[in-house]
Design brief:
Blueprint lengths: L3 E6 L5 H11 L12 E5 L14 H13 L7 E5 L7 H7 L2 H8 L2 E4 L6 E3 H5 L9 H4 L5 E3 L6 E5 L1 E5 L3 E3 L5 H5 L11 H15 L3 E12 L7 E11 L2 H12 L7 H8 L11 E4 L19 H10 L4 H4 L9 H28 L2 H7 L17
Parallel strand pairs: 1-12, 2-3, 2-7, 3-4, 7-10, 8-10
Antiparallel strand pairs: 1-11, 5-6, 8-9, 10-11
Length: 382
């Protein structure tokens, strides 16, 4: 079957309807099994609200409403969160207004690090282990993955944005937090190959695999945190994780096949990364847009420049080894101090305030006070 990506123009007044339509245009009901649990894998790239950085509340809300409307059992849906050493998922789900959505629909809320059993990946995927590109070298004794993932569906909920390690981040990168434990920074020097390995694992363990991407606000620059957000008014959906990332990359102005993880996955037959081979459904003319994003490397922050020097540059042999020892917390503290204490209040706050004046920003700011129609929000408040 040819890979298909649904893309639609949207606005607050129709966004719920548009998510439902995009998911069905992309054939999610043929992929997501009704008889097993479905994890809605929320993306929290920062525990503060920052436009385009994390799953939006209308994205999570729209996916849940679409599935309930199509007859999926509420009891078999759950929001799914991982944590990182620099981002608090508990705080993030509050600040990004995911928790009110989950509570309003009465679905379960699963934090993978809160009492959930994890098992060694070799017990989960067997002989597939021998085909992994880099993870056997990074973790000679294997690594653990959440046991609950085996046999359940997963729907990834990324946003359209750039990333200082991988040029762009989307559906494939969204598996990074859920499938790897807190030593996942060990994979940064081989991050592209790691994402391909994780896609192999996902295809083996999940009953169904799908992605719904929010591009209502999209981020350019040194993402996933220190970006410039732009209103773009699009949503995307696909059962092909490679294809949806390729179309997202193309919209931003990148050649998808120049992005290493997309090219590797395409060449290995894990999905389609060449836009010429992807069927676009919905508002097909949107796929021809070029937003001409400058990307993550032109205006890197001090923090992102240092990360590059540590993982790939002249500081690698002096510092990278420490990130695999008890000394690693120095880097976590440095990241939090830079991004939370310095960058957000001095630079990022102005960008947040500007975005909050948009229709999407007002919808976010007034979220708890607004009541949608079946289609979306006719009034987004003051």
């Amino acid at each position: 079957m040819r890979s298909k990506v649904a893309i639609l123009r949207t606005q607050p007044a129709t966004v719920l309807q548009d998510y439902h339509r995009a998911m069905n245009l992309a054939g999610y009901q043929q992929v997501i099994d009704r008889t097993v649990d479905t994890a809605l894998k929320v993306n929290i790239s920062w525990h503060y609200f920052y436009p385009a950085c994390s799953t939006t509340p209308w994205q999570l809300d729209g996916v849940i409403r679409a599935m309930l409307r199509d007859g999926y059992s509420r009891d078999l849906l759950h929001a799914c969160h991982n944590r990182t050493v620099v981002v608090s998922a508990r705080k993030g789900e509050r600040e990004n207004k995911h928790l009110p959505v989950v509570k309003s629909h009465g679905i379960r809320n699963v934090h993978l690090y809160a009492g959930e059993p994890w098992i060694n990946v070799r017990d989960a995927i067997g002989d597939l282990t021998s085909k992994l590109l880099v993870l056997n070298d990074v973790y000679p004794n294997g690594f653990s993955i959440p046991r609950r993932f085996i046999g359940e569906n997963i729907i990834h909920l990324p946003t359209v944005k750039t990333h200082v390690f991988t040029t762009m981040t989307g559906a494939m990168k969204n598996a990074f937090g859920g499938l790897l434990n807190e030593k996942r920074h060990w994979t940064h020097p081989v991050i592209h190959e790691t994402l391909v390995d994780l896609l192999m694992i996902q295809k083996h363990i999940h009953k169904g695999l799908f992605a719904v991407m929010d591009g209502t606000l999209a981020g350019d620059g040194p993402g996933p945190r220190c970006m410039v957000p732009y209103v773009k008014n699009v949503v995307l959906a696909s059962a092909d994780q490679v294809a949806i990332d390729a179309i997202s990359a193309k919209l931003m102005g990148f050649n998808p096949l120049d992005i290493k993880f997309i090219r590797l996955a395409h060449d290995l037959g894990l999905g389609v990364g060449d836009p010429r081979e992807i069927e676009i459904v919905g508002d097909v003319d949107v796929a021809e847009e070029n937003w001409r994003f400058v990307g993550p490397y032109e205006k890197m922050t001090f923090a992102s420049r240092m990360q590059h020097r540590i993982y790939w540059g002249n500081l690698k042999k002096y510092i990278e080894w420490s990130l695999k020892t008890f000394l690693a917390p120095w880097s976590y503290a440095a990241s939090v101090l830079y991004h939370d204490a310095y960058w957000l209040p001095t630079i990022g706050r102005k960008r947040v305030d500007e975005a909050l004046r948009s229709d999407w920003g007002r919808l976010f700011a007034n979220w708890e006070k607004l009541t949608p129609t079946e289609k979306g929000w006719d009034d987004v408040g003051n």
